[in-house]
Amino acid sequence: MKPFRYHRPADVADAVAVLAAEPQAAYLAGGTNLVDLMKLGVQRPDVLVDVNRLPLDTVEELPDGGLRIGATVRNSHLAAHPTVRRDYPVLTRALLSAASGQLRNMATTGGNLLQRTRCPYFQDTTKACNKRDPGSGCAALHGVNRDLAVLDWSEQCVATNPSDMAVALAALDAVVEVHDTDGVRDVPLAELYRSPGAHPDRETTLPRGALITAVRLPALPAARRSTYLKARDRASFAFAAGSVAAVLDLDGDVIRDVRLAYGALAHRPWRAYRAEQELRGHPFSPELVARAADAELAEARPLSENGFKLPLTRSITVRVLNGLAGRAQS
Ligand code: SF4
Fold first, then answer.
1. Ligand 1: which atom is nearest the Cα of residue 121?
2. What residues contact 247, with CB distance under 8 A and at least 6 apart?
3. What is the structure's pLDDT at 1?
4. Radius of gyration over alpha carbons of the chain, in Å?
5. Which of 67, 92, 280, 310 is deepest in the core (most CB within 10 A)?
């Protein structure tokens, strides 16, 4: 591993100032992704700015009924938080479906949002990868691409975002609080991630050196009826082959509101606005849900090995919404 310096900032302003002054600095939180990438030589920071002791580790209930989650709240703590379990079960389920108990005890809210793709070529420094080494090519496009994107990919990159938590946050319309040298501002989660386009090395809309300090969830009573389902190759410690986060609000049999987001399909968590539009205001039926999922996926462009993601995503959408609607599984 390349030698690096270590800095423990006095406060958020100090942390942000170091990142602004050092072009090759990186924030260290749980380290569950960054340290692996440093060992592999994929990330080679000159200095690590350790944000673990900043006062960002609390979950606060907001006066409007929402929730503010500090950026260094650990994934295990957040999953077990009684308010999250009661009011946003989709978030608890997404968190518990990720990684392993040991990793969730270390991984943080902010770090989870910024974890890097698990595209195998990205993690192998002997392979061409535009994300790791811009302009070098994309070994995955015609390579082993079973786990990669079917939506919104570019010739330059077909990677997927690996986070389960971010999929739940996309369905919940979360807002990310960000500090940089200009101060603090809000970034809706829907605007946090970029499509790969010509610059897959730029994964978020955040300016370099910005620090995520919190995530806010809006008050959303309908989210008490919400869940997350992850399809994967083994029952634990595996990334998603497909996943869905769902909130369902029924008025009798009619869908008053629905929020859907998909994981493992694209370079960012995929909010299924089109499917939601097909569903809202109509009587619930599994057939309608299947048609809505198909409408959402109509513009998908599967790669050579991942066409299975389309029927898989349709199937888990029907299963999840059937469950939230209290219907027996077909
Ligand atoms: Fe790199 Fe993206 Fe291609 Fe994977 S899909 S090799 S991350 S450019």
1. 6
2. 90, 171, 172, 220, 222, 223, 225, 226, 257, 258, 259, 324
3. 84
4. 20
5. 67
Nearest alpha carbon to residue 272 among 302, 241, 293: 293
**Residue 204 dihedral angles phi and psi, to the nearest 5°:** -125, 170
Ligand 1 test: best mutation among 40, 127, 129, 305, most atoms within 8 Å of CB? 129
pLDDT digits (tens, 9 = 90+) for 271-299: 999 999 999 999 999 999 999 999 999 99
Give the CB-side neighbour count of residue 151, counting CA atoms within 13 A: 23
- Amino acid letter for position 246: A
Number of H helices, E strands in the chain: 11, 12
Cα–Cα dist 198/280, whole Å: 35
Question: 128 CA to middle of ligand 1, Å?
Answer: 8
Using DSSP's 3-state secondary structure scheme, residue 89 falls into helix
The model's pTM is: 0.98
CA 217 from chain centre, in angstroms, equals 15
Under DSSP, the state recorded for 145 is -
Give the domains, in start order, of the chain with CATH numbers: 224-324 (3.30.390.50)
Please state, in angstroms and rounded to a whole number, the distance separating the CA atoms of residues 326 and 259. 17
* Other residues' Cβ atoms within 10 Å of the Cβ of residue 237: 12
